Amino acid sequence: MSSETAVRHYYDLVDAGDVAGVVACFADDAVYHRPGYEQMAGRAALTDFYGGERVIADGRHELDEVVVDGSRVAVHGRFVGTLKDGSAARVGFADFWVLDEQEQAVTRHSFFDTPAV
C-alpha cells in the first residue's frame, strides 16, 4: 500500500465509524496533535478519542489535495457532518502525517480553518 493509499484509507475508515480500523492505521507509539485536545500518545489514547471523546457524531471528509513526499503526507480538505450536540459542522482542515515502513502513522498534526485572531 502506498503512503497516499494508507492515508486515504484512514479517512474512509473514520467516516465509516470503524474505531478499530482507524486505530490500526497508527503505530503502537503514535502521537496525534489536535487543537483543543491534549496530545494523544499510543493506541489506548487514540481508542479513547475515536471511541468516545471525539465531538463528531458522523460525517465525511472531502479531500481536495493529498501531497506525498516519501513517508510524509499532507492533506487539505473539509469535513462535513454532524456534531454530537446535533449541530451541523463544515470545517476546512489540513493534516500532516508521518508514516513508518508499514504505512502506519507515527505522527499526525491536524489544523482547522476557523477564525482564531
- The gross shape turns out to be globular
Secondary-structure arrangement, i.e. CATH architecture: Roll
The total number of structural domains is: 1
Task: List how many beta strands DSSP finds.
Answer: 6
| Share of helical residues | 25-40%
Under CATH, the topology can be stated as Nuclear Transport Factor 2, Chain: A
Strand order of the largest sheet: 2-1-6-5-4-3
Roughly how many Å apart are the termini? 40 Å
Low-confidence stretches: none
Share of β-strand residues = over 45%
Return the structural class: alpha+beta
CATH class: Alpha Beta
How confident overall, as mean pLDDT?
95
Q: What composes the largest sheet?
A: 6 strands, mixed
The succession of helices and strands, N to C, reads HHEEHEEEE
Helical segment count: 3
Pfam families: SnoaL_2
InterPro entries: NTF2-like_dom_sf, SnoaL-like
Protein name: Nuclear transport factor 2 family protein
Descriptive account of the structure:
It is a single chain. The protein is built from three helices and six strands. The chain has a six-stranded mixed beta sheet. A hairpin with a 5-residue loop joins strand 5 and strand 6. It has a single domain (3-113), classed as Nuclear Transport Factor 2, Chain: A (Roll). The protein is of the alpha+beta class and 117 residues long.
